[in-house]
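Handover notes (outgoing to incoming on-call)

Open items:
1. GH16 domain-containing protein: sequence verified, structure written out, both below. Nothing else pending on this one.
2. Nothing else urgent.
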Amino acid sequence: MKILRFSIRFFFIFLITSALYGIIESPFKDSLFFSGEWWHIFSNYDSLSNNFFDKRMAYVDSSGYLHLLAIRERSTQGTRFYSAGIKSSRKKSFGIYRIEVIGRINNLLNTCFAPFLYDWDMGIYEIDIEFSKWGNPLHLGGNYSVHSWRPKHIRKGITFKPLSDYKIQDPVVSIHYIYLYPDSIKFKSSIPVYVLPESLQKTIKDQQEIIISKWKITDKNFIPQHRGLYPEVYLWWPVKKNTGPDTVEIIVKKFEYIPFKDN
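GH16 domain-containing protein structure tokens:
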């Protein structure tokens, strides 16, 4: 019995260690290991958006940070729009979803950075955070939205200013949350205090983050009951104009999922 207990204990230690360091083989052909789990990298042409999702547009560096690229490639044959998209290998449920980002998400003119949750099993629910000016420099640049197809598509959401008016120092870091409850969905975006000018940091006490925006919805048409969702992260081109930079990069420092205890 002692040998059996030791073997079981060793097996679980191996599984935990393997998950942390990516020893277990990825379940996907094109994949990357980020924030303690495997993610599928999309590699396909999307005819609806005219984006080429390319596995070269997503990679993890030696610090464990996820880099997402969107590249507009011009040639005599025309212009191609290369984008990045990844999907978690793990279906998740009620809990807190947190993503920490490096990059000026408030200045994405023609590209869109979008961490969101999607119901891949039935295609009924989608919970979005999006950062883009959608080709309009006057657009506020941030969106929270929820979608439901039951069976007709309905959407609710708000628009907000992603980084407010703070003079944030480089590197620009922001943190974004989705709180998925059985009776509501809450969104929140914040900036860590350490990215603010030192003069402003001194005036802020007992806070590690400053909330930029938040929103809550309780309409049950948009809340997935007993249905798992897959986290996804995209950087893509919704607008096909030749303005703005040809290469855009957003870095994701960390993704976290904290399940509620009663899940």
